[in-house]
Amino acid sequence: MSRLVYAVILASGKGERMNCGFPKQFIEIAGKTIVGRSIEAFEQNSGIDRIIVVSEPSHIQKITEIVENCGFKKVTKIVPGGATRFESSSHGVGEIAEDDAKVLIHDAARPFVSQRIINDCIASLDSCDAVNTAIKATDTIIEAEDGKMAAITERSRMMQVQTPQGFRAKTIKTAHSLAEKEGFKGATDDCGIVFRYGLADISIVEGERRNIKITYPEDIVVAGIIAENK
Ligand code: CTP
Ligand code: MG
After folding, report:
1. Of 26, 56, 129, 143, which has the fewest Cβ atoms less than 10 A away?
2. Cα angle value 10/103/86 (rounded, 5°)
3. Which residue from 190, 4, 170 is spatially nearest to 101, judged by alpha carbons?
4. From the CB of residue 214, how many other CB atoms can be counted at a distance below 10 Å?
5. How far is the CA of 86 from the centre of ligand 2 (A)?
6. CB 64 within 8 A of CB 37
7. DSSP codes joined into one string, 10-39
8. What does the DSSP 8-state code read for residue 126?
9. What's the sign of the alpha-carbon dihedral 65, 165, 225, 56?
10. Which of 45, 55, 37, 33 is nearest to 7 (CA)?
11. Residue 152 carries which DSSP code?
12. Which CATH code fits 5-132+161-228?
């Protein structure tokens, strides 16, 4: 049997920077919630077998309703997240029993991920154990310390990381357990953890500018425009 392909959708954040009174993944963009749009992208992809959604415990019911109302058939589990993205990701990946499965971990806050990106991530995992999605940086990136410039990077070599990030299940499970042992819990993405422990070469799939992470109120305006021009 060919290897199962899972999507893990991380929807357990609080959306503090959005500051809208409820988690940003429940904001509606052109009639559909952000989390509903993210799940839909994976539901529609024929390469995806199963979807695990990670949710803040008190919102599991709400996600269940979205899944039922939208008729998503691939969502097999809705599991509680943790206090950090790292914990939420570990909870989601921890539900996968098969070590050789392919897993795409995706931010619920990126509802405009394309079918092309999902396809490329799945295909990459035939020849490597980890894959990141990234786009070329358009701004120059500096390091700052105590309000002062501490280092400058060469823009042409810089990329901004998006999701999905894909892994063989064993690779990401090993990464998560090493991070747990080390007490390294601040990771803002999963490839960063695999990279930290040198567990795999991480290939890069080209992201897209429209695959934005909805973070601040201004992003809602942009999201509305993207949704109307799909
Ligand atoms: N996430 C999660 N569990 C957490 C924190 C984040 O599942 N404890 C998810 C978010 O729901 C989001 C993705 O990880 O889909 C990326 O996180 P981010 O954009 O930072 O979302 P929030 O943490 O919700 O926003 P903020 O940092 O502004 O509070
Ligand atoms: Mg956050």
Report:
1. 143
2. 40
3. 4
4. 27
5. 10
6. no
7. EE----TTT-SSS-GGG-EETTEEHHHHHH
8. T
9. positive
10. 45
11. E
12. 3.90.550.10
Which residues, judged by CB distance below 6 Å to any ligand atom, belong to the binding site of ligand 1? 10-17, 25, 54, 81-85, 88, 107-109, 213, 215
Ligand of minimum distance to the alpha carbon of 13: 1
Q: Which tokens sit at 77?
A: 């589990």
pTM: 0.98
Closest Cα to atom 10, ligand 1: which residue?
A: 13
Return the ligand 1 atom nearest residue 82 CA.
8
CA distance 161 to 188: 10
Tokens of 141: 């990136």
In the numeric block, which tokens belong to residue 177?
A: 């357990």
The three-class DSSP label of residue 166 is strand
Total residue length of the chain? 230
Binned average pLDDT, 10 residues per bin, the chain of 230 residues: 90 98 98 98 98 98 98 98 97 97 98 98 98 98 98 97 98 98 92 98 98 98 96
Contact 204, 117 (CB under 8 A): no
Distance between start and end Cα atoms, the chain? 35
Q: Which amino acid appears at position 24 of this protein?
A: K
Question: Residues 202, 128: contact at Cβ < 8 Å?
Answer: yes
